[in-house]
């Protein structure tokens, strides 16, 4: 993401927290990341996006990934 482009929210409107991971099943953010999004500066938002990408890679092929695909 370019530094001069506003950082969009990763929200997918599938708002269910997974108890085993602590991540939203829709956007893969933690509850703290979701609650704090509006107050975060763009650098912090980009860091959250990087964390989401890492989480997506880490969960590939797991039961959590299968549940997300059905959501």
Features:
single chain; 71 residues; mainly alpha; 3 helices; 0% strand; globular
Give the topology, please.
Layout: H1 31-36, H2 42-59, H3 63-70
Beta-strand residue fraction: under 5%
Q: Low-confidence parts lasting 5 or more residues at pLDDT below 50?
A: none
- Rg of Cα set: 12 Å
Helix content: 40-55%
Q: What is the terminal-to-terminal distance?
A: 27 Å
**Which of globular, elongated, flat, extended, rod-shaped describes the shape?**
globular
**Count of strand segments:** 0
Biggest sheet layout: none
Order of helices and strands: HHH
Q: Estimate nothing, just give the exact number of structural domains.
A: 1
Which whole number gives the mean pLDDT?
Answer: 89
């Amino acid at each position: 993401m370019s530094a001069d482009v506003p950082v969009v929210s990763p929200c997918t409107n599938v708002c269910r927290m997974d108890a085993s991971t602590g991540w939203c099943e829709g956007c893969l953010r933690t509850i703290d990341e979701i609650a704090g999004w509006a107050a975060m500066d763009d650098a912090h938002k980009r860091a959250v996006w990087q964390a989401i990408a890492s989480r997506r890679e880490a969960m590939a092929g797991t039961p959590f990934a299968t549940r997300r695909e059905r959501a």
